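Record minuted for completeness.

…
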Amino acid sequence: MVLALMLVLPIASIVLDDAPLSAVLVGTWFVFWAVGIRLLLAGIRQIVQPRYTAKTILGIESDDSLVLVRELGFANVAIGCIGAASLVVDGWWKPAAIAGAIFYGLAGINHTRHPGRNRLQNIAMVSDLFIAVVLSVALLASL
């Protein structure tokens, strides 16, 4: 799912789009899939099943973290809605890309600080840093 939302679907959308290749085209599709759809889906799961994120991804056994994971889910849904809507609302891809680049960049850096990362944390770290770079490059190239 992460590979599809962070790489396969954005690239397929770019290839299938009739517009010429540009930073705006790349930014538009990566924002829609990686910021919009991925964060929207992750947020919904964190709200409905906070234990999955806490235990499986973060390795936190205590139920004390579930309130915070739900709060993270609310933030992910909010950012995801903006990213998804950026496909149809002119001018929204750049602010969504800025929010996404900051969020994914900081999350990716935070993952690097955990030496005992599990496989899912490694996937999250690599995909977070990758998207932060793609969004940053698209934003800079679009200036």
The radius of gyration is 15 Å. The chain has a mean pLDDT of 95.
